[in-house]
Every structure is written in structure tokens, then in C-alpha cells.
Amino acid sequence: MTILNKDNSLILIIDIQEKLLNAVFNTDSLERNSSIIAKAASLLEIPVCITEQYPKGLGYTITKIKEALPLASYYEKTAFNALENQDLPDKLKTSNKKQIILLGIETHICVHQTAYSLIENGYEVHLVKDACGSRSLDEYMNALKLMRDYGVQIKTTEMVLFELLRGAKNPNFKEIQALIK
Q: Which long-range contacts (CB under 8 A, 24 or more apart) does 157-162 make?
């Protein structure tokens, strides 16, 4: 297990879209925590990739995330594993980041399949569990266990933020701390 390093990290947001968000059991916390991660990424200048599963039918990434991340790269997909969109693996490779901070919907489908593929491709995956969701709590919990078993580091929003900051002397400390108050 390793601690996150902002200079070696990339954030991958999976399918936090209008219609999908309304179907998960933890809509409020997922929306709040994913927008906190998005704002922190902007403040800390961490690159972000966002996928959208069939946006024509499921809607687009929620406004809170889009507004916080005007420079994010977007990838439309129909495969559950986000790495099956060839543009995304190319972006990950050229970023030269080895730590992927992963969050999104649905934990047991698209997030799980993407996490597995990232691990298989040599990335270190840090899943933000309170910024992920599924329609069923049972499916969500099973996915967390399975991902932990194959090497995904399961963390919370606050754990991720404070690992990225490293200490209170970080110039963004007060701004990041304000996001969680």
C-alpha cells in the first residue's frame, strides 16, 4: 500500500451522469464527495479524465463536476470497462501518472471492470469508496471486497484529500480543508 502523491496522480471519474446518479442508493453522499474530489483536483492541478456511458440515453456528467473541472478530458463509452475506449488508455499512458484515483457509478459494473483493467495494466488504483455508488448496497459492498482482494486501495474522500496535501504547510491546505467543513 502506498500514499498518494499529487505529482504522480490522475483522477478518473466513471459515469457520474444525471440518470445514473438518481438510481444509486447513496445519491447525496456520492454527489457531495465526487464534487469535493473534483474541486480538489482543480485546486491541486491534478489531471482528470471523465467517462460518460452512452450520454445520449443516460445524460451527461452532473453539473457540479463539469463546473469544477473545465479542463477535464471526456470520453464517451458503451463498454463497461472504460479502458476499452482506446483514447483513454492512450491518455493515461501519455500522462505518465501511475496512481489512479478512481470514483464513479456503478461500483460493481463499470468501476469494478475499469479498476481490474487498470491493475492489470500496472497502475496503482485508489478507489474513493464514498464517491462511488450502485443501485444496490449488496452489489456495492461485494464490489469493494472483490476490488480490495485484487489490489485496489479502498479509501474515503478525506483520506484522499489529506494524502494529496501531505501536510498543513501545503499552500492549498485551507482551501481543501474548507471543502469538507
A: 157/33, 157/36, 157/37, 157/128, 157/130, 157/131, 160/4, 160/37, 160/40, 160/101, 160/126, 160/128, 161/36, 161/37, 161/40
CA distance 161 to 176: 7
Q: Is the pTM of this model over 0.90?
A: yes
**Number of domains comprising the chain:** 1
Helix or strand or coil: residue 16? coil
Q: Which grid cell sits at 103?
A: 470514483
Where is 104: in which H helix or E strand?
strand 99-105
> pLDDT for 79-118, tens place per residue?
999 999 889 999 999 999 999 999 999 999 999 999 999 9
Residue 80 lies in a domain: yes
> Which residues span the domain enclosing 125?
10-180
DSSP summary character for residue 105: E
